[in-house]
Amino acid sequence: MRKMLYVLFAATVFVSCSANGNKGYNSVDADSFAKFIANEQVQLIDSRTPEEFNAGHIPGAININIGDENFRAKVNELDKSRPIAV
Questions:
Q1: Which of 2, 22, 23, 71 lies at a 20 to 30 A Cα distance from 78?
Q2: What pLDDT is attached to residue 25?
Q3: pTM above 0.70, yes or no
Q4: Residues 6+ positions from 86 with CB-CB distance below 8 Å
Q5: Residues facing 85 on adjacent strands
Q6: Secondary structure of 29-74 in the HEC alphabet?
Q7: Which SS3 state, helix, strand or coil, does residue 84 take?
Q8: Splitting the chain (86 residues) into consecutive groups of 10 residues, what average pLDDT does each group show?
Q9: Distances (CA, A) of 80 to 20, 21, 31, 59, 76
Q10: Angle CA 24–27–33, to nearest 5
Q11: Rounded CA gap, 22 and 7, in Å?
Q12: Quick one: pLDDT at residue 64?
C-alpha cells in the first residue's frame, strides 16, 4: 500500500505541473498523503492503465490513464476549486 501511495504521489506531481502550467505542487510523505486523501473534498486520481487500476486501487480513486490520448482533456474536466491528488 505504501508503495502504491508513492507511485500515486509521483503521478500527482506530474498532473499538477501539467494541469496548472507549473504553478507548483506540494511534495508530501506517504503518511501525509494518506491523511490528505482522507478529506472527501480531495479528487483522488489513479493515472495507471485500466488493467492496473482494476487489479487494485485506493477506494474512491478515479482512473484517468496517463497513456490515454484524452488524458489532458480528462484532467482539465476536474473541479479546479477542489484539491487533486494523484
A1: 2
A2: 75
A3: no
A4: 8, 9, 11, 12, 13, 14, 15, 16, 44, 45, 46, 47
A5: 44
A6: CHHHHHHHHCCCCCEEEECCCHHHHHHCCCCCCEECCCCCCCHHHH
A7: strand
A8: 57 53 74 94 96 96 95 94 92
A9: 9, 13, 24, 21, 8
A10: 125
A11: 20
A12: 97
Give the DSSP letter of residue 77.
T
Return the closest-CA partner of residue 12 out of 52, 55, 54, 48.
48
**How far is 79 from 3, CA to CA, in rounded Å?**
27
Contact (CB, 8 A) for 59 and 46: no
Tens of pLDDT, residue by residue over 22-39, are 556 788 899 999 999 999
Residue type, 79: D
Cell of 85: 491528488
- 3-state class of 78 per DSSP? coil
Residue 28's pLDDT is what? 86
